[in-house]
Amino acid sequence: MTMGKIIFYEERNFQGRSHECQSDCSDMSSYLSRCHSCRVESGSFMVYDRPNYMGNQYFMKRGEYSDYMSMMGMRDCIKSCRSIPMHRGQFRMKIYEKENFGGQSHEMMDDCENIQERYRMSDCQSCNVMDGHWLMYEQAQFRGKMMYMRPGEYKSFRDMGMSGQRCQSCRVESGCFMVYDRSNYMGNQYFMRRGEYSDYMSMMGMRENIKSCRMIPMHRGQFRMKIYEKENFGGQSNELMDDCDNIQERYRMSDCQSCNVMDGHWLMYEQAHFRGKMMYMRPGEYKNFREMGMSGQRFMSMRRITDSCN
Q1: Within a 10 A sphere around the Cβ of 229, how many other Cβ atoms?
Q2: What is the per-residue pLDDT across 155-212, written as a single tens digit (0 to 9) for each?
Q3: 166-171 contacts: CB < 8 A, separation 24 or more?
């Protein structure tokens, strides 16, 4: 088994103290207080931005990395590394759609740039690497965050700290959806209509990946919602049947803290003219927005979700 060689340097452009490594290193801080450049003289390595081979992973092959953080888009210094042994022979890996080797499965012996297109698999949550060393990527065409897999059984990527790294783009083929940056329909909400979102985080100003989503049913008929100035349906109230781009101008209401949606599906916005953070409202009574995780927000405009989003 042939091992590689990598040299780490404290400063950019291979300056400052250095440390040479030809095997795995679980904690770089034992040798260097920081690392800003490195040189791979032979072989290949997986480097990590956390000790003990945790955190984001980056693949380095032979070459010079004078400022690897800028070159590779890293936010943190290298904290640990693994040497990837040279492998000669066949490659075999079995991938599973669900954790604990459940759901649809397929055996691979070569590269696969898109499991959805090749196998009609929507996800991969566990695997068994029989032969060779592999890199798994969160996006198709070998893009996005990666994970190094050496021979062994991996029954849950989530337990390995890889939770929430699978969704970076999406396509709405029909209908409308509300997506959330927290599980169980919590956190910031974003409205998606039919279209392609190749990098939705940049396109929509999101800081976190999508963690949950709701399909918005098609509604044909009238729209009715009663809004209240205070919690528990208190204070001034007004009934809406169409869009309202500013409740302060139309109704002289300074805030909206509860509502009753009688018909249709609505979006409420924290600013006038349908701007700022939003909240999806389906038919029902909402007596306290604060208890729904919307503390500190007020809603100043409302819009109907019509069939025009299809």
Answers
A1: 19
A2: 988 777 665 455 667 888 888 899 988 877 888 899 998 888 877 777 777 777 788 8
A3: 166/123, 166/138, 166/209, 167/209, 167/210, 168/138, 168/139, 168/144, 168/199, 168/200, 168/201, 168/209, 169/139, 169/197, 169/198, 169/199, 169/200, 170/197, 170/200, 170/210, 171/195, 171/196, 171/197
DSSP per-residue codes, 68-111: HHHHHT-SS---EEEEE----S--EEEEEEEGGGEEEEEEESS-
Distance CA 126, CA 156 (A): 5
Span(s) in the chain for CATH 2.60.20.10: 5-84, 92-160, 170-212, 224-309
Report residue 302 CA to chain centroid gap: 28
Of all helices (H) and strands (E), which one includes residue 250? helix 247-251
Question: Which CATH number, 2.60.20.10, 1.10.3720.10, 1.10.443.10, 3.40.50.720, labels domain 92-160?
Answer: 2.60.20.10
Measured distance CA(224)–CA(96) in Å, rounded:
46
Cross-strand bridge partners of residue 105 = 96
Nearest-angstrom CA–CA distance, 64 and 69? 13
Q: Which fold has domain 170-212?
A: Gamma-B Crystallin; domain 1 (2.60.20)
Residue 54 and residue 161 in contact, taking contact as beta carbons nearer than 8 Å: yes
DSSP conformation class of 46: E
Distance (Å) of CA 116 to CA 48, 112, 141, 149 = 28, 10, 11, 20
pTM of the model: 0.54
